[in-house]
Specification:
single chain; 322 residues; mainly alpha; two-stranded antiparallel ribbon; 11 helices; membrane; transmembrane helix
Length: 322
């Protein structure tokens, strides 16, 4: 066998391993490691170390099996997105650290099922948080004041792992509060909350990944990149789909699920058609939602697709996204 053939075979093996092993490694391997660390009562910094491994893995796999190689190239947004990751992960960790204080302030019955196996407690927390986050996410596409802050996330024109945490801190806080508040009210333990925070970070990396991975029929249930790309289509109404963070269960029930296996995505389909010149720097994006220009004229619209091009037309149902 020639050197070229050997290299091609090795490359194919690595790509296949990444294509089919990436998601199990992240969802089962790294989340499982987080569960083991928390259940053993190990220091919380080990969870942060696992998140760092997840981020490094995301970047590596995006190089091995990119969905769109152009999305791997910095567009003067790499530093900005790293700032988002640092700020928003700090907020998430701070919220976990504040749980004992919140639990002391909120006088509510302690209904948390402490007797359940730890892994089942984590899965239950994920399902409850998924519902709250999905509801706020959907509302953010319907209510102007929420959309002002959520629009930051939809300004992206390339799809890669760090996009997941590219959120205005105000919107990040509202989403996480909706997901975690019901859990705190029934006595969410800090260890479970810590793993939940790790799971959120890993899920956002997978959901916005530029990796062309495969998960089979699970793509209809798990909120991963193949379905989430439809959520980032730039036309009003078209992107009002697939709101779930962890699962698509609520989207199926709310009839906001959408998927077309024949569709291919590129940067021309991402962003916001109504605001193609949305600010791109971190500081301007922090300020912009508070300005007059940070809002938009909310006009009820729907969309019709003709030859792959979406166009807005009046919709009497009152659904919109600007």
């Amino acid at each position: 066998m020639s050197t070229t053939s050997t290299t091609s075979l090795a490359t194919g093996v690595v790509q296949a391993a990444a294509r089919y092993g990436y998601v199990p490694f992240m969802l089962i391997g790294l989340n499982g490691a987080g569960i083991a660390v928390a259940a053993a009562g190990a220091p919380k910094f080990w969870l942060l170390a696992i998140l760092v491994i997840a981020i490094a893995t995301a970047f590596l796999v995006e190089q091995i099996i990119p969905y769109d190689p152009q999305w791997n190239h910095d567009r003067a947004d790499g530093t900005r997105d790293r700032i988002y990751v640092a700020v928003n992960e700090t907020l998430i960790l701070a919220s976990v650290a504040a749980i004992p204080l919140l639990a002391a302030i909120v006088l509510a019955p302690q209904l948390w099922p402490h007797s359940w196996p730890f892994v089942v407690q984590v899965l239950a927390a994920i399902l409850v948080a998924d519902f709250g986050i999905t509801v706020v996410h959907l509302a953010s596409h319907k209510i102007g004041v929420l959309w002002r802050f959520h629009a930051v996330h939809h300004s992206i024109t390339r799809f890669y792992g760090l996009n997941g945490l590219m959120k205005h801190p105000v919107h990040q806080t509202v989403e996480m509060a909706a997901g975690v508040a019901p859990l705190i009210l029934i006595g969410l333990p800090v260890d479970v909350a810590s793993v939940l925070a790790l799971a959120v970070g890993i899920q956002l990396l997978l959901q916005h990944s530029n990796a062309d991975y495969r998960v089979g029929p699970a793509k209809y249930v798990l909120a991963l990149n193949e379905g989430h790309r439809f959520h980032h289509l730039k036309w009003a109404g078209v992107g009002d789909v697939n709101f779930g963070l962890f699962t698509l269960i609520w989207d199926h029930l709310l009839r906001t699920y959408s998927y077309d296996p024949a569709r291919r995505f590129d940067s021309n389909q991402l962003g916001m058609a109504a605001k193609p010149d949305y600010p791109s720097s971190y500081l301007r994006q922090m300020i912009y939602p508070f300005t007059r220009g940070g809002g938009c004229t909310l006009t009820p619209t729907t969309t019709a697709a003709t030859n792959g091009t979406e166009t807005a037309t009046p919709d009497p149902s009152g659904k919109y996204r600007c």
